[in-house]
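Summary of Year 1 activities. Much of the first year was spent building the evaluation harness for sequence design. The harness presents a backbone, in tokenized form, and records the residue chosen at every position. We chose the following record to illustrate the format because it has been used consistently in internal testing since the harness was completed.
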């Protein structure tokens, strides 16, 4: 899995998580290691936008985000067009 974050004129490093991604690895290797520091550095008022994949909506993940006071945007089902990163992944896919 590859994860990246964007915000106006800022971006995170791309994060590559080897193997299958579950909620525990998502929290440890993505949220705690990369997303949370980025949010803290550029907050307050930063909203995390993620889709409804299992690692994103698992209890472990939602509890971590609540505990760390990260605001998460409500996400309607089957709406990848709302997420700007989906358009970037599409463009990258077309180049290869």
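For this record, the design step produced the sequence shown next.
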């Amino acid at each position: 899995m590859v994860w990246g974050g964007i915000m106006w004129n800022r971006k995170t490093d791309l994060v590559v998580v080897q193997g299958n991604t579950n909620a525990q690895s998502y929290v440890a290797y993505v949220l705690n290691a990369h997303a949370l520091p980025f949010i803290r550095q550029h907050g307050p008022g930063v909203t995390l936008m993620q889709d409804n994949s299992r690692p994103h909506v698992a209890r472990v993940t939602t509890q971590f985000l609540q505990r760390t006071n990260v605001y998460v945007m409500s996400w309607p089902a089957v709406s990848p067009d709302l997420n700007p990163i989906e358009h970037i992944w599409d463009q990258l896919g077309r180049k290869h």
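The first strand starts at residue 2 and ends at 3. Quantitative recovery figures across the full test set are reported in Table 2.
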